[in-house]
Write a structure and sequence with these properties.
seven-stranded mixed beta sheet
């Protein structure tokens, strides 16, 4: 099983948008819990959004509700994170991760065994 691969990060002004992508192998993607996590310098890693790839059930951190949308493309085994109305506090390294669970999909990172290398998102105020 190959680790997920993120793409789509970059630098944008506050109020802007970005879409992150995460390509995963079929083994990792199928009937799994996949999520986006982020870590800013000097801060702990936090869960941003998760989705069960089988049912499509999603969870979001309060800080991003209404601004970020997690989605998936089953045909491409790809996860997305659409980020709108970006704020400077969204600046962080964003990671895609997966755990082999068809029903349990928390925002905590414990249990996620597959991690990408990360993609940097920088929002300037």
């Amino acid at each position: 099983q190959v680790q997920p691969v993120e793409s789509g990060g970059g630098s944008v002004p506050a109020g802007g948008s970005l879409r992150l992508s995460c390509a995963a192998s079929g083994y990792i993607y199928s009937n799994s819990c996949m999520g986006w996590f982020r870590q800013a310098p000097g801060k702990e890693r936090e869960g941003v959004a998760t989705i069960l790839t089988g049912s499509g059930v999603t969870s979001y951190a309060d800080s991003v509700k209404g601004r970020f949308t997690i989605s998936r493309d089953d045909a491409k085994n790809t996860l997305y994170l659409q980020m709108n109305s970006l704020k400077s506090e969204d600046t962080a390294m964003y990671y895609c991760a997966a755990r082999r669970s068809a029903w349990f999909c928390p925002l905590g990172s414990v249990g996620f065994g597959y991690w990408g290398q990360g993609t940097q998102v920088t929002v300037s105020s």
